[in-house]
């Protein structure tokens, strides 16, 4: 397969393979800028994780160059750990503030992350789902993928019909995410996450997967067997998905 080309893949998903992770992020960034330019009041679904860092760097650079404004857009993040305040460096809220929200013109009252400190996390999840609906639904959902095929915090075994809810993290995910926490500090056991149904309701989905560690998850996501064993495989049921991979995640 030639690098940088677009491949029609199983069912309706399309894969764009780039030589490097940097180029994968640049491709995602260009796509997002294009969509926000075409629809300035775009409702964005946002993701965290290392795979997204260069996407945000690119978006911030494009904003600084005057190529894109988020002033009329709004955003909903996929997930947040239960028990972590936005001031905790490993919280997804802190990640978003540091890498995106504080650096662009997206209004703070229109950039939402689930509240990890809500008194009633189940109620917070219900309200979050309702806010997405009230905003008119997500136009463009950015996604990463976990080493076990999770999307958001929808771990293996998650139902395709689940909405935003409280989810228990798998041992594999907690161990993969330990790197974001201080030595000896436990990764929270639960999170509030958009459900698979919430994600599939987005009008367009862009997944960025880079690095060798994601190769198996990507292969299973594209497998003919759609199964909750690999929650990302449910994306095959969506009509408009672009999977952007580097050569390590999607080999020849
Ligand atoms: C976390 C997030 C996911 C993200 C995944 C992969 O578990 N909940 O939304 O896709 O990490 O992150 P990374 O890109 O750091 O590998």
Can you offer a commentary on this structure?
Helix 1 (21-38) packs across helix 2 (53-64). With 252 residues, the chain is an alpha/beta fold. It contains seven helices and eleven strands. 28% of the residues lie in helices and 18% in strands. The strands form two sheets. Strands 1-2-11-10-7-3-4-6 form an eight-stranded mixed beta sheet, covered by helices on one side. A three-stranded antiparallel beta sheet has the order 5-9-8.
- Ligand inventory: 2-amino-2-deoxy-6-O-phosphono-alpha-D-glucopyranose
Record the strand order, biggest sheet.
1-2-11-10-7-3-4-6
Helical stretch count?
7
Q: Could you tell me how far the N terminus lies from the C terminus, measured between alpha carbons in angstroms? A: 6 Å
The average pLDDT value, as a whole number, equals 94
Main sheet overview: 8 strands, mixed
Structural class: alpha/beta
Percentage of residues in strands: 15-25%
Helix content: 25-40%
pLDDT below 50 for ≥5 consecutive residues: which ranges? Answer: 1-10
Query: Which overall shape is indicated by the principal axes computed on the Cα atoms?
Result: globular
* Radius of gyration over C-alpha positions, nearest whole angstrom: 17 Å
- Count of distinct strands: 11
Question: Which helices and strands, and how do they pair?
Answer:
Blueprint: E1 6-8, E2 14-18, H1 21-38, E3 43-46, H2 53-64, E4 74-77, E5 79-81, H3 92-99, E6 111-112, H4 121-134, E7 140-143, E8 165-168, H5 171-177, E9 190-193, H6 196-200, E10 204-209, H7 215-221, E11 241-246
Parallel strand pairs: 2-11, 3-4, 3-7, 4-6, 7-10, 10-11
Antiparallel strand pairs: 1-2, 5-9, 8-9
The structure holds 2-amino-2-deoxy-6-O-phosphono-alpha-D-glucopyranose.
2-amino-2-deoxy-6-O-phosphono-alpha-D-glucopyranose is lined by residues 47-51, 78-79, 144-146, 152-153, 173, 177.
């Amino acid at each position: 397969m030639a690098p940088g080309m677009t491949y029609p893949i199983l069912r309706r998903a399309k894969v764009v393979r780039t030589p490097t992770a940097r180029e994968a992020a640049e491709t995602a960034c260009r796509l997002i800028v294009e969509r926000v330019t075409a629809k300035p009041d775009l409702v964005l679904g946002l993701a965290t994780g290392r795979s997204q860092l260069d996407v945000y760097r690119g978006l911030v650079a494009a904003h600084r160059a005057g190529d894109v404004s988020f002033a009329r857009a709004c955003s909903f993040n996929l997930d947040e750990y239960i028990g972590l305040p936005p001031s905790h460096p490993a919280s997804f809220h802190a990640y978003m503030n540091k890498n995106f929200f504080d650096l662009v013109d997206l209004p703070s009252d229109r950039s939402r992350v689930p509240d990890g400190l809500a008194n009633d996390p189940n109620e917070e999840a219900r309200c979050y789902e309702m806010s997405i609906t009230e905003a008119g639904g997500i136009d463009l959902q950015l996604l990463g993928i976990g080493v076990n095929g999770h999307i958001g915090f929808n771990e293996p075994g998650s139902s395709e019909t689940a909405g935003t809810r409280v989810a228990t993290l798998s041992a594999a995910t907690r161990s993969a995410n330990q790197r974001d926490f201080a030595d000896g500090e436990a990764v929270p056991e639960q999170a509030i996450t958009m459900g698979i149904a919430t994600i599939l309701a987005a009008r367009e989905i862009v997944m960025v997967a880079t690095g060798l560690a994601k190769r198996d998850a990507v292969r299973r996501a594209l497998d003919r067997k759609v199964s909750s064993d690999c929650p990302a495989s449910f994306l095959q049921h969506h009509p408009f998905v672009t999977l952007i991979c580097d050569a390590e995640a999607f080999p020849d």
